[in-house]
Amino acid sequence: MITRRKFLMLAGSAALATFLPTQISALTQSSGSSSGDSKYRWAMVVDVSKCTECMEELIKKTGNPEVKPPCVLACDYENNVPEFEDKRVDPQWIRIVKMRLKKPSVNPKEFYMPILCNHCEHPPCVQVCLTFASFKRSDGIVMIDTHRCIGCRYCMIACPYGARSFNYEYPEHGLKKVNPEVPMRTKGVVEKCTFCAHRIDEAIIKGEEPVPACVEACKTLGKGALTFGNIKDPESEVSRLLRSNFAVQLRANLGTDPHVFYIHLGGE
Amino acid sequence: MNIEFRKVEGSSLAYISLVVILAIVTISGFYAYYLEFVHGGLSGLSNRVPWGIVNAGIPYFIGLSAGSLIVSALAGVFKIERYKVFSRMAAYLAAAWIIAAILSIALDIGKLYHFMNAVRYFNPTSIFSWNAFLYSSYFVICAIYLLVQFEEMERATRFMACLAVFWAVLVHSGTGAIYSFVYSKELYHSALTPPMFIVCAITSGLGLLLATLYFTFKYTKRELDPDLVRGLALIFAGLCMILGYMLAVEGLEKGYIPALHEAIQFIFLNPRDSIFWSFWLLVIFGIVIPVLIVLIPRTGRDIRLVSLAGILHAAMVFAERFYLIVPGQVYPEEYLAGYELESLHTLEGYIVSYTPTAIEWAQVIGLFAMVYLIYVIGVKLFALVPEKAVGEVKS
Description:
heterodimer, A: Alpha-Beta Plaits, 9 helices, B: Formate dehydrogenase/DMSO reductase fold, two-stranded parallel sheet
């Protein structure tokens, strides 16, 4: 027979026991600040017409309408993004999409452009994250601390750009080669593009211009459709491109202020 | 107040077999989770539809809990003496449902080992974060409310009843807001969801309580006054109609937006997808038929049929949760207004259907069985059920 007192004691100790396995996470504690005090604000500019040109050539050459261009392959390799047969669960940090005007009789042409994490100024994923596992660095990069992530996937629901993937599998099961420069994620957490934060941090220390893997691959093997840089610096290439072009942000009406900008949408 | 609460003997073969069956179903649910945990890929989830029925279990169980608690506290808050007869069992069930809800979160998240991070870190802009606090405090309030009832502390019971109702409304509105404040999905975003959650909570909680009342009294051979059930059944039917009204307003408002015409057609008129069935089964078997059963005098006075109405409704409210959570994920969003999008390397831009697997169903049903296991054991251990529940009880 359980007395009331025993019942209370049992309930109390059960509650206490749940608090025991605590998580320690240096990553978020050191860089949780999202105040705009950094002299950097990283952004990307995508030239849609150059991207379309590159994709059209590549599809024609390979005959594969789903071919992965250099930028996507470079990202996959650089960031240990696994490759799984089943597209439903295959994570993809950067991917190419085909865009068509909803009035094909007016313009049947298909345009290609990459979609990736937009590193928003007001990121909905950070807004909804229970544990601050998703956070925005002072230089604007939105990151995930996988040691803190509980895998609730609220951020995936909240992200307006489908930028996030959940690891239904261990990523190493879908990798042929592992890049030791980038931390390996585990099963049961969410992952996404980091703008190659590890490259950025290293370049800043060395006093060099940071270049994410996709941008580098696009410059050397593609048509140079991607430009990356600091928009707080008026002399940077991204600032110059944004000044001289009609730039579009995806779903700008939501007020998230994405930092991936698209130019030359008409294919001029 | 002289209502006699008495423990259930619980030594019959029927009782023991019920406990065994419920325990087996519960264990199968946790075993299903274990299989999913070890092997992975056994659910119907994808990167396009990351929230499925195990996630739907969270608002569903919280709804049942909030509903049960609100009904339980009716007696205390509005001083309706005759409803005091089931205030204990309803409060006890409320506590059991919230355990199921919290376990639902535990089964749903990808990293169970990181679970306590949700309690340790508090992000004030995250509605889920607020709810982590609300759910745990809610359980404590349920437990204290139950204890003061056991101790027959009249004033404290009244105070706790008021607090419990307030907290239940807060908890369940918060749960609704988890989904409805998501502005990136137009099919999610709706200010109507939190109030609809409250209505739905009371209807499903009350519906299941009616059935639980009927079966408990029947199998313990205690006296249940049909008039008492009638009063509750009428509240149930009235709120079911309000739920139907709210669903209609929300659907029509979404359907009025040209940008959503295709999505709305897909949801309401495409019988090849389970979303269509979740909505229409809810409307027909969850609202129309239960309301008719209660309102038609001949069927409405038959306690057996009223409990059937309650069970039907409570089961279909799970379909409502499916209808709330799934369509917004299945139907693709437009990234650049006016342009159709097709991803070459993911399934963005495509309709990615979600069909829950047996592994997922086993988890939801297992948690459901767990609540009734807690209840069945509870009525044996604690004095939860009154000797008889008749209308003329005077204070």
